[in-house]
Amino acid sequence: MHRHVRPVLILASLVLASSCAQPRPHVEVTPAVPLDQASLITAAENFLRSFDNMDWEPFRASWSRNPTVFFPFADTPERVDGKAVEARFRTFFADVRSRRPGPPYLHLAPRDLRADTFGSAGVVTFTLGQRPGDIGRRTLLFVLENGEWKLAHLHASVIETDER
Q1: Domain range for residue 148?
Q2: N or C: where does the chain have the smaller number of CB atoms within 10 Å of the terminal CB?
Q3: pTM for this structure?
């Protein structure tokens, strides 16, 4: 080997070896930690309790910044978005409070409650059977906002059964 090439190869090997030995900056990758189903169920229970008691402030605090709702009412067949959700619920609260004693006003008794988390989203489903022949089906979609489960979408429907 040429006498100038060998020192260059040795020097290049030393530089390469020393750069490999340099400590690399440590980058921590924190995987998304899904909240457990218990915290999702707690959020759903808090929402349902405030709804049942027609307790406006905790009820409103349960919602995300831009909620959507499919109401089970014939006078509201379309999806309701954003600020209109609050307005529609205020009307519902006033109507229920004027016609029923309470709290509780609605006497909600969720059955077959199921909660599933999907990263920063959670789905809670259950049924309500308040009147013979009707089954209320509910789906609550929660999202994480600032580390708290907030209700982003409520889908409420009622089906008739043969039990009349």
Answers
A1: 37-160
A2: N
A3: 0.75
Nearest to 82 by CA among 96, 63, 58: 63
Stretch (H or E) spanning 61: helix 56-61
Q: Do residues 50 and 134 make contact, with C-beta atoms less than 8 angstroms apart?
A: no
Whether cis (ω within 30° of 0) applies to the bond prior to 103 is yes
Specify the number of domains making up the chain.
1
pLDDT for 3-17, tens place per residue?
554 444 443 343 334
Q: Render 78-142 in DSSP notation, one character per residue.
A: S-EETHHHHHHHHHHHHHHHHHS--SSSS----EEEEEEEETTEEEEEEEE--STTEEEEEEEEE
- Cβ 37 vs Cβ 116: under 8 Å: yes
95-112 per-position pLDDT tens digit: 999 999 999 999 999 999
How many residues comprise the chain?
A: 164
What CATH number is associated with residue 150?
3.10.450.50
